[in-house]
Structure formats: structure tokens, C-alpha cells
Amino acid sequence: MTNTCVVGLQWGDEGKGKIIDILAKDYDVIVRYQGGGNAGHTLIIDEEKFIFHLIPSGILHQDKKCVIGNGIVFDPCLFLDEVAGLSERNINVNGNLFVSDRAHVVFPYHKKLDLLIEKQKGNSMIGTTGRGIGPCYTDKIARDGIRVAELLHKEHFKEKLKKTVEEKNRLFVDLYKDEPVSWEEIYEEYCVYAEKISPFVCDTVDLMAKAIEDNKKILFEGAQGALLDVDFGTYPYTTSSNASAGGVSPGIGVSPKQIHEIIGITKAYATRVGSGPFPTEIDGEQGEHIRKKGGEFGSTTGRPRRCGWFDAVAIRHSVRISGVDSLIMTKMDVLDDQETIRICTGYKSNKKVYHNFPADLDVLENCEPVYEEVSGWMEDTSKVRDVKSLPGKAMDYIRKVEEIIGLKVKMVSVGPERLQIISI
Ligand code: GDP
Ligand code: IMO
Ligand code: MG
Question: Is 307 helix (H, G, I), strand (E, B) or coil?
């Protein structure tokens, strides 16, 4: 019995959703353990598109259990929308989808705060998804949050919400000179949600303990990526949770001993959406070309993603933090028409070359990347389904990445569809 964790090694959107959907057939339980509605995980099956923000990407396998852990910041409105979307497509979630009673609830005042804080930051704005993620995690850590279990207790919820909204309104009115929000309106809206989500809510600590006792195979689905991790990413241009494998235990309540394998997902190049340093970013026409070819527009916000070259300094950092065992490389097909492909192996700054990912944003922002160049394969890989049919130069690129990172690439993805995958 092997439990596996899948994490993004870059700034999110590595194709985790697609990979989870592919791997899920070999597991019994699929778990989201951190992040929230900021995530957008895309699956394309026979040209039909699904984007999941909160529901684990294993949900299309109807015989599996999907669990939303306590580490998630849970937006009940978004969740119910996703459930309704699935039911419209005749995908049943009753009895196989579970929400932790310990997850923190996202409220409209979190979203409002998210936007006001960003506005106040001006030029140094993070470029958040506006889904209330930071403010909800802030309340959790400040011990001011409201959890799913409390939401289901009408009287208790009413008192706590009223008090919390009073505090938030002081911020809105006095500090931000903005409109207050009405606790009564939120209360009414959220009582309706409470009723609708209650069949999904349970003690997921118990659920997971029983799954482990029964030798069920568990797949942990990371959201975002290590470079957006609040501790190890490009802080403060990060999200507010631990997006590396270390987030699993606090985010679902299983021991680290229960994670047996860690797979890191990376694109064949790099992208980032939102602000913050991106040493290998490609400006101008070439970056624009990759963005168009790769359909690099946010799954959650639709914003154009910034594109850049594969950054081995950053990936090695991400691999170390999570203890990654092997890699899966996605979006190989997007590089099909690049004559020369670059891999960054160091950052040059102030006469020094960095091989470890620096904490200092000044270095990250102003460094000159040191590149190795490999020649592109200039062939269509999107129809390739077995490793022997991959162009020799594409294989050379994969081997080069393996050598520089020191890990095997076990799968390569050559298109968004479920079947566009090659085992190596
Ligand atoms: P996630 O957040 O890590 O699940 O990734 P997203 O779903 O936000 O972004 C990945 C995007 O790339 C989605 O639009 C996928 O459909 C698409 N995608 C995934 N793998 C591949 C691939 O190998 N090639 C191409 N061209 N697109 C891919
Ligand atoms: P998935 O799971 C890409 C980015 C935002 C912003 C920063 C903080 O689909 O890979 P937040 O709303 O979390 O406070 O925003 O993090 N971000 C993501 N970028 N993919 C994601 O998730 C992201 N989730 C957050 O763009 O820069
Ligand atoms: Mg995404």
C-alpha cells in the first residue's frame, strides 16, 4: 500500500489536476489538504472540460472517495456551485465527497478584505485571486475564524458571526473608508449553505484513520506550487498556505509516516500568474507565443500567465523542500516549435552565482540567469503515446532535466487531454 502526494514545483498551474485524474484510478481516496478557491485544476476528457477549485480532481472516478481537508479554506458557495455543475453533467457526488468539519469558512468579508488590501498595496500588490484566501487564513491563525462545525450550529454561528462582522466593519469603515457589510444578510445566506453542505460534512480525521486502517490507498492533491508556499516561496508574493508536501499532515490530520511517495509536477518551461520575481521570464514575442500555444490563461481568474524558461535552481529548491521522489513533466508539446530551449542553472548577482534559491527578493528580481541551451526537436509531440516515438531531441531534453535535477521523469504530458500522456 503506497500513499502518494502530488505537488506543484513551480508557481502553480503545472497540470496537477490532469495528473491527479490519471493517477486516481490506482487509489481509493483523493484528498485536497491546503489552499481553497484560488486553485483551478483543469481536466479535459474527450474534449469535455472540467475545472475544479475545491473538489479533488479524482471526483470523476465515481468509485473513489474525495476529501476536502481541514487545511482548506472552504467557500461553501463555490463548493455548492461545483457540486451543482457536476450533477448537471450526471456525475454523482453523494456518498463519495466529504468536507472536514474543521475547515475554515470563507465569508464575503474575506473577499472584500482581499480586494481592499490589494488596492492599498498599490504597485506592490500580490495579484491575488481575490477569493478571500489570505484574509481567511489570517483569521484562522489569529484564532478569529469560523469553522464548518460552527457554521452548522445555528445559534452559536449567529453570535460569532455578529461579533466578527462588527470587527470587520470597523476595518472597512474606519481604516479603508469603505462600506460596511451586513451580518444579517451573511447569516441568512450562510444558513442556506449550511443546510446544503451538511450531508457532506464529517470528521475527516476519523474518515482518514479508518481508510488507513483498512489499507486504502491515498492520493494527496497539492494546490498551488512550492514557489507559492508561504514559507519557502517568493514571500510575500506567495499564497497563504504550505503548498509543498509538508502541508499534508496539518491539512488533513494524517501522520507524515503515511506519505510514502512524493511526485513533483513541472511544466517543460515555467509560468507565473500574479506579481513577484520570475528570473527566467521571457519578454516580448517569444513569451507571447508560448502563452498562446500553451493556452496560458488562469483557470481561476482568466488572467494571462507570464511565461519563462525551465528554472532548475527553483525546481531543485522545491524538490528539496518536499523530498520529491520523481518528476512528471507537463506541456512538453508547447515547446514543439522552439529551435533552442533554455534551462536556467544559476543566478548571477553582484559577481556571485547562486545555485540555491535565495530568500532575498532583490537577488531574484535583479539577477541574470545562467542558461544552458539545448536544441529543440521541432516536431509535433502531441500525438505521441509511447516513449519510443518521442523525438530524440525531446528525449535529450528530458534526460538533461533529469541530470540537472537529479531525479527521474516518470511521465511526460503532451497535451491537455487525459490520453495525452507518455510513461517513461
Ligand atoms: P493545475 O492548477 O496544476 O491543475 O493546472 P491548470 O489546470 O491551472 O493549468 C494547466 C493547463 O494546461 C490546463 O489548461 C490544462 O488543460 C493544460 N494542460 C495540462 N497538461 C498539458 C499538456 O501536457 N499540454 C498542454 N498543451 N496543455 C496541458
Ligand atoms: P493552482 O492550484 C497559480 C497565486 C495568485 C497570486 C498568489 C496569491 O491552480 O495551481 P491568493 O489568491 O492565493 O492569495 O494569491 O498566488 N495563486 C496561484 N497561481 N495557480 C494557483 O493554484 C494559484 N493559487 C494562487 O495568482 O499570485
Ligand atoms: Mg491551476
Answer: strand
Catalytic, out of 21, 28, 41, 75? 41
> Of 203, 188, 103, which is closest to residue 145 (Cα–Cα)?
103
Note if the pTM is more than 0.90.
yes
Tell how far the Cα of 387 is from the centroid of ligand 2, in angstroms.
33
- 1 pLDDT higher than 80: no
pLDDT 10s digits, 163-217: 999 999 999 999 999 999 999 999 999 999 999 999 999 999 999 999 999 999 9
13 classed as catalytic? yes
- Nearest residue to 195 via CA among 156, 159, 152, 157: 152
- In angstroms, what is the span from residue 140 Cα to ligand 1's centroid? 31
| Ligand 1 neighbour 316 (Cβ under 6 A) | no
Percent of the chain past pLDDT 70, that is, above it, reads 100
**C-beta of 42 in contact with ligand 1 (< 6 A):** yes
pLDDT tens digits, 232-249: 999 999 999 999 999 999
Q: For residue 274, which ligand has an atom nearest its CA?
A: 2
- The arithmetic mean of pLDDT across residues 265-280, rounded, is 97
pLDDT for the residue numbered 298: 87
pLDDT computed for residue 300 by the predictor: 81
Is the minimum distance from the CB of 415 to ligand 1 under 6 angstroms? yes
Residues framing ligand 2 (Cβ under 6 A)? 8, 11-13, 35, 38-41, 126-129, 131, 133-134, 223-225, 228, 239-240, 273-274, 299
CA of 167 to the centre of ligand 3 (A): 33
The set of residues, in sequence order, having a beta carbon less than 8 Å from that of 34 and lying 6+ positions away, is 69, 71, 72, 222, 223, 224, 241, 242, 243, 247, 251
**105 bridge partner residues:** 74
* Closest alpha carbon to 8 in 220, 252, 281, 235: 220
* Radius of gyration, alpha carbons of the chain: 22
Helix count (H) and strand count (E) of the chain?
13, 20
